[in-house]
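Late entry, evening session. Most of the bench is empty. Finally got around to the prediction I had been postponing all week. Sequence below, unchanged from the version circulated by S.P.
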Amino acid sequence: MTLKTKITLGFVAMLALLLSIGSYAFYTVRQLDLKSRNILKDNLYSVDLGQQMLHGLDALREEPGSAPGLRQLQRGLTREAGNITEPGEREVVDSLTQQLAAYQGDLSRDGRALPPAWRPLRAQTLRMMNLNTAALTRKNTLANHYAEQANRNLILFITVAALLGLGFVASVPEAAVQPLRKLSAALSHATARDFAATIPQESNDEFGQVALAFNKMLSELREFRSSTAAELLTARNRASSIINTLDEGLLVLDESRRVLLANPVMCELLGLPPEKLVGRPASLVRLENDLFQTLTAPLDAPNREQAVAEAPLLTITQRGEEAFYRLAVQDLVSYNEASDKTEFIGQLLTLRNVSDFKKLDQVKSNFLATVSHELKTPLSSINLSLKVLQKDNLPEAERQDITVGIQRETQRLQRLVSELLDVSRLDSGQGIQLNFAPTQLAEVVRFAEATVQAQLANKQLTLQTALPPDLPPVRADVEKTTWVLINLLANAIRYSPAGESIAVRAARAGKFVQVTVQDRGPGIAAEHHDKIFQRFAQLPDKAGYTGGSGLGLSIAREFITTQGGRLWIESELGSGSAFHFTLPVGG
């Protein structure tokens, strides 16, 4: 049975009770009214007629032949004859009729004397009145008894109706409200994210259908919560991993400037553990940490953007090295759907490590100074040599020496320009154009030796070569490979003391041929082995000479790597340096 049917039946039952009580009350009142009317019509009317007849008899006693009295008696008797309602009343009326006839007969014989029939007339009239009075009393008693019985029955019906009504009042609303209480309790649990509190399905009515739908919704919510929780956990872990692996310091403040988040880099830079930062007001942390005070100082500036833009780089020493950081501040806002407004929810402070840019700027400055020096020295030498050549009395031998010097300085400028062009080509993404062919390294070594022979003689250096006769050819670009070997020999000559020797060796190493250039110079510390292959990198020797442009080794590595080989160094301070490169064997 549905809940609607239950409520409808309850109201129908209440309506039936009301109609029953009303109908019974109406019937009872109607019966009492009828009984009262019958009493008035039958008995009371007869008593009234008896009174009229007695008045007529009284008039006849005063004057036996009184016409009004006689008419009154006859009229009353005639009406009484038409209103006979009680047992025995007919006999009395018949007796009165006979006595009236006797009275009139006696009166016709002697109109002056009171006929003997007067007394029987009076006696029968009184009898008729007494008969109706007794009936009136009896009927009144019966009516009263009926009214009392009706009252008792009505009270009984009202009591039963009240009890049934109270039962309906207690049961029908409870039947409607109890399921709502269960639903409300289940909703409260669901609001508290307890999706296990289902509603027992105890019936097939409307609430049973609601319980079925609600339990199905809870099941789907549990599945959705599980999937959403997994997604949120994954997203949180992903975000946490991203934040924790950032190489930038990250600090988040809420709208009241309370620290919400600080990633490991920021904690390390501030020198504070997370528990000393997260959840604490920024006003307290800045009193304990000078760097934190420096970070948050622009927040109080009248023009925050200008204050942040004009803030100098922060120099922070990390693991014995200076690192440079730039501060950035970003407001955090969120859209509030309730107010349809964008609200301020906090601030994001970041410390970006710009050490590489700072170092690059320094390298650029050093490069410009080096290039200026590299250009100025040969240009000054050429200019001076040209002035000397302008003398007319210059001996031919000296003129020849000056010409050779100008040629040497010009080649030096050409080499520098060529290196710069190679770097520009690599930076523009044009790549290196290679012409691969089977190449005999012995020929490359002989050409490079002839090229640097003048430099060797100038420093009184000797070049020792060790090339196996069965050395296989390599797949390489002859021009680029020769350039690499000449550059390595030039560096070895530059850093080798006068009178020492430089060795060039080659040997097969699996599918490659390895070439080594060994010098006896001051050597390079292990921490600088990778740095020397970076562009514009320069390491001063013991005499403070900074050498060339710092591009040669960077370009040499590019040439070798592009040909499928590798270029590296083995060196220690005070033990000289050995540069190795490999090229693939090719027929």
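Two things to note before I forget:
DSSP finds 15 helices and twelve strands in the chain.
Confidence is low (pLDDT under 50) at residues 541-546.
Will write this up properly tomorrow.
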